[in-house]
Design goal:
Mean pLDDT of chain B: 84
CATH class of chain A: Alpha Beta
Number of helices of chain B: 12
CATH topology of the largest domain in chain B: Transferase(Phosphotransferase), domain 1
Largest sheet of chain B: 6 strands, antiparallel
Order of helices and strands of chain A: EHEHEHHEHEEHHH
Bound molecules: adenosine-5'-triphosphate, magnesium ion
Number of domains of chain A: 1
Oligomer: heterodimer
Strand order of the largest sheet of chain B: 1-2-3-4-6-5
């Protein structure tokens, strides 16, 4: 169900999970709750890890999101692009569903003549600019990620720069896995400002297993607890889409 | 940038392929590939004896989005902001439906290639043209967004700069749709990614820097200090320093302010060059006269100066002779009457 907000998990990892639930199944679970899972695979130059890549694509596919393999240097531009693309994709999905209700079954944007598509696109653009966005960032801090973390930090600050240029509100939360005590650890609770990440990131320790599946599951419950709190306060979630259509 | 491999191969078509539109039934014959980027592939194609550029993408929405921008540009009077839009359609290929649009084919080298071939003396002229076009675009509520040398083509026969690829073009006040790090003020820590005219002017300044650093450079410390340093290291940029720095710091709120100041810099740095020198299509011709302006102690400079003096003395002689002759004729005429 669409609730007037876009929820995304952004998973930044460099390889294969080796602990706990199947991350692809957990991504499917996220999708069922209307949360898309996007994955960025950070690779070393010239190292192509087939198995890791398959998992990365699998998670994004079953999580209804976008995936991209990238070298560490190109991370910033990719993180913002993937987030944006995923957001547009979600909005498009919503608009398509609305269209189907208006025009009858199996009608999508692509079935409209090109002239009509322009107007629909304007709505998609408008929504992309104004919609409330919740991004939960899930960072792999297993040993192999150690020297990539400064780049990840840069990329996340860059992401907040891109998203904060929008008119709509943003909420960010950052989780890392494996955590100090548990599989997953929350290092930044929901906040509109990602900048506070800078100091936290420098204190991060890396090492250990890669429990990607459990990490996604925990992330989901963080959305859920947030939702139940918020839904008490706001009740007009769905109305704005109809207004702007 | 990263490129989705499946996307690229689906839009990959061989020369000779005929692309027929599903809605408007126009037929386009692919001649060759012109280039590709994150959003699709652009082909040169033949349509009824004329050449058009055809852009196709797996992502129908990005095509629709660019078409929206080009449609809006078409309403701007006498505009040469982007390529003019010709047709929008879908093609039912063997690999599925692909959205495409056709536009005016803008023929010519990109900005960097042009400057490398024709010499730096053209740069200022082209930037003045660009700023004029940007001003029109801004006046109509847009920001170009992804401004970079690859998206600037110089057409002929009289060189004229044109912008292609409106993928980043954004309504003012919204978040920039697409950008390239080196030309993005956010990347350098010098501003937001909210679309305003100054966003484009920052990119123009970076393109100016780029002309002296064709390979670009990476961010180290970032911020204005790194860029100022880069400007000061290149003679070609030093003369433009004032304008570049102001644009980088967002001191111009519209393109015409920047254009006016660039123009006056161009005039003041060209004045001391003797006519014979600027006529020579030598690529270094603009550099030497600029030095003249700054330091008078260099041997070259003095030589230039003397030459100029000699020349003006000669001109004096000619003028005096001519006026004397004129007076003489008047005198004769009077006598005759
Ligand atoms: N109208 C045109 N006339 C001539 N050449 C063109 C035209 N449009 C595009 N091209 C060529 O095709 C290339 C790719 O086009 P374009 O930049 O529109 O693609 P893109 O996928 O949006 O790229 P990017 O990743 O830079 O956003 C250009 O660099 C240019 O060389
Ligand atoms: Mg583009």
């Amino acid at each position: 169900m669409y609730t007037g907000k876009i929820r995304q998990i952004l998973l930044i990892t460099d390889g294969c999970s080796n602990q706990g639930e199947d991350p692809i199944a957990m991504a499917a679970l996220a999708k069922e709750q209307g949360i898309s899972v996007n994955v960025i695979g950070v690779m070393e130059q010239d190292v192509i890890d087939e198995k890791g890549m398959t998992e990365i694509e699998g998670i994004a596919m079953s999580g209804g999101g976008v995936s991209q393999i990238v070298y560490a240097q190109a991370l910033s531009q990719t993180v913002q692009m993937v987030t944006r693309k995923a957001m547009t994709q979600t909005i498009q999905g919503v608009v398509n569903r609305e269209l189907q209700q208006i025009l009858g079954r199996s009608q999508t944007i692509e079935d409209l003549p090109p002239e009509k598509r322009g107007e629909v696109m304007e709505v998609v653009d408008e929504l992309g600019e104004t919609v409330e966005l919740e991004v939960l960032i899930l960072v792999d801090t297993s040993a192999s990620m150690k020297h990539k973390l400064p780049t990840v930090k840069e990329a996340l600050l860059d992401l907040s720069l891109s998203l904060n240029a929008r008119t709509g509100d943003n909420q960010f939360a950052v989780f890392v896995f494996p955590g100090k005590k548990n599989d997953v650890e929350k290092i930044l609770d929901w906040t509109p400002k990602l900048q506070s990440l800078t100091s936290i990131f420098s204190q991060l320790t890396t090492g250990g297993i890669t429990p990607t599946g459990p990490a996604i599951r925990t992330a989901l419950s963080s959305f859920n607890s947030k939702r139940s709190l918020r839904s008490l306060m706001t009740g007009d979630d769905e109305s704005f889409l109809e207004e702007s259509m | 940038m990263m490129m989705n491999h499946s996307l690229k191969s689906r839009c990959k078509v061989a020369p000779g392929t005929v692309i027929t539109g599903k809605w408007h039934s126009n037929k386009y014959t692919v001649i060759k590939e012109l280039g590709y980027g994150a959003n699709g592939i652009v082909y040169l194609a033949k349509f009824k004896n004329s050449q058009v550029a055809l852009k196709m993408s797996d992502n129908g929405m990005s095509i629709t989005s660019e078409v929206n921008v080009l449609r809006s540009f078409a309403k701007v009077q006498g505009s040469t902001l982007g390529p003019s839009l010709l047709d929008v359609d879908d093609w039912k290929s063997s690999r599925g439906q692909i959205s495409f649009y056709t536009m005016e084919y803008i023929q010519g080298p990109d900005l960097m290639t042009f400057i490398q071939n024709k010499g730096r003396s053209w740069t200022t002229v082209l930037f003045l043209q660009l700023l004029n076009d940007l001003n029109k675009l801004h006046e109509n509520g847009w920001v170009f967004g992804d401004l970079k040398p690859e998206n600037l083509i110089v057409t002929g026969p009289t060189p004229k700069i044109r912008c292609i690829d409106v993928g980043g073009t954004t309504i003012q006040g919204r978040a920039i749709k697409e950008f390239t790090e080196f030309y993005d003020r956010g990347y350098w820590g010098l501003g937001t990614r909210k679309a305003d005219p100054a966003y484009d002017l920052f990119a123009v300044a970076m393109i100016m820097i780029n002309t002296a650093y064709p390979k670009r450079f990476n961010k180290t410390t970032g911020g204005i200090s790194q860029l100022r340093e880069a400007i000061r290291r290149q003679k070609d940029l030093q003369t433009l320093e004032k304008v570049i720095l102001k644009a980088l710091q967002g001191h111009y709120t519209n393109a015409l302010q920047m254009r006016t100041e660039l123009m006056s810099l161009a005039m003041s740095s060209q004045k001391p060059s003797s006519v014979n020198q600027s006529m020579a299509s030598n690529s270094t011709s603009t550099i030497q006269p600029q030095k003249v302006n700054q330091t008078g102690s260099q041997p070259k400079t003095r030589q230039n100066y003397r030459k100029k003096k000699k020349k003006s003395r000669w001109a004096e002689t000619v003028i005096i002779t001519m006026s004397l002759t004129l007076l003489y004729f008047l005198y004769i005429f009077q006598k005759l009457l």
